[in-house]
Design goal:
Blueprint (H helix, E strand, L loop, with lengths): L1 E3 L3 H4 L6 E6 L5 E7 L7 E6 L10 H10 L1 E7 L23 H15 L6 E6 L1 H11 L6 E5 L9 H16 L15 H4 L11 H13 L10 H14 L8 E7 L7 H9 L4 E6 L11 H18 L2
Parallel strand pairs: 4-5, 4-6, 6-7, 7-8, 8-9
Antiparallel strand pairs: 1-2, 2-3, 3-5
Helix pairs in contact: 2-10, 5-8
């Protein structure tokens, strides 16, 4: 694989990280980041980030995983970070169909094989990464256990907003306006366009400022808002995921009690039917639990590490 840029001065991650270009089977070029675990490591983790995120924003999670003994492989989804952008406006988060993200997962697994990632393999999916990861596991992604934080298995909308979202996004797609921004979204980066007070992402001012600093110094890593097409395909995928069967893989799902992005009821419903799974509501936490205050991050990562260790017994 060809080496790709990795701005580890931004990432605050363990040394000796590397990044590579890989290709999905439809030709889209993707960037993956890789960090080896300790010499006596416990396996490897596929870290699937959320919407608007990118490899360098995962530094705290990579550091935690390294401390717990795991190698980590992270991806910039298509339309994110330094991977190929999909829309004509490069700031737009867009997708033609949600199944395209599974092409990215397949490329990630091929990269894991090529890099000879130590097994067992595990998965952590955050927000959008939780949506993509659930589909991947249901379709046979070879992981021993999985964890999700604020997984996008349902988008949090009021009843009237949900009706409007379906109607407007379907109409935009039907009339060739699928790449237009959703109402309230534009080309601007969320962190730069919204002060810390009142943000929907995290209660940790330091982490939020870190994201703002990234946006100012490395704008090429950033995205703006989502397209109408992305919204429609996301709504469709959440509906489809509510009906699929999942394997008996050990699983834990977390959601913050202040999460205003995803639908906790959808998470509860999914986990109620997951034979070897459980759900936990984290108090005083917003949407991105892996970017939350240190006490929340440590609580979540400790439980994830315990689950992974249990699965390896």
């Amino acid at each position: 694989m060809e080496r790709a840029p990795l701005h580890d001065e931004l990432a605050r991650v363990p040394e000796q990280g590397s990044a590579y270009w890989v290709r999905a089977n439809d030709g889209v070029r993707l960037r993956v980041g890789f960090w080896k675990g300790p010499d006596n490591g416990k396996g490897s983790v596929f870290l699937l980030p959320g919407r608007t995120q990118y490899i360098e924003l995962q530094g705290q999670t990579v550091e935690s995983l390294h401390r717990y003994g795991y190698a980590t492989l992270v991806i910039d989804w298509r339309g994110h970070g330094l991977s190929d952008r999909i829309a004509e406006d490069r700031n737009t988060i867009h997708i033609e169909r949600f199944s395209d993200y599974q092409r990215d997962v397949a490329a990630l697994v091929r990269a894991a094989d090529e890099l000879e990632l130590p097994k067992p393999w595990y998965l952590i999916g955050a927000s959008l990464g939780g949506c993509i990861g659930l589909r991947a596991i249901a379709e046979g992604m070879p992981v021993t256990a999985c964890a999700f934080t604020g997984p996008m298995w349902g988008i949090k909308l009021k009843p009237i907003e949900r009706i409007a979202a379906w109607t407007v996004s379907w109409g935009a797609q039907a009339f060739g306006r699928g790449e237009a921004y959703c109402p309230g979204h534009d080309c601007r980066n969320y962190a730069l366009n919204n002060p810390f007070k009142g943000n929907r992402i995290t209660n940790d001012a330091e982490t939020y400022q870190l994201w703002r600093n990234h946006a100012q110094t490395r704008p090429e890593l950033q995205t703006g808002g989502s397209s109408m097409g992305w919204l429609l395909q996301g709504l469709l995928e959440c509906r489809r995921l509510s009906k699929i069967r999942v394997p008996d893989t050990l699983c834990i799902a977390f959601c913050g009690d202040q999460d205003g992005v995803v639908d906790f009821h959808a998470i509860e419903k999914r986990m109620a039917g997951w034979r070897n799974g459980r759900v936990e509501l984290i108090r005083n936490a917003k949407h991105e639990l892996l970017l939350e205050v240190p006490a929340v991050r440590e609580r979540v990562m400790t439980q994830i590490s315990d689950l992974f260790r249990q699965s390896a017994v």
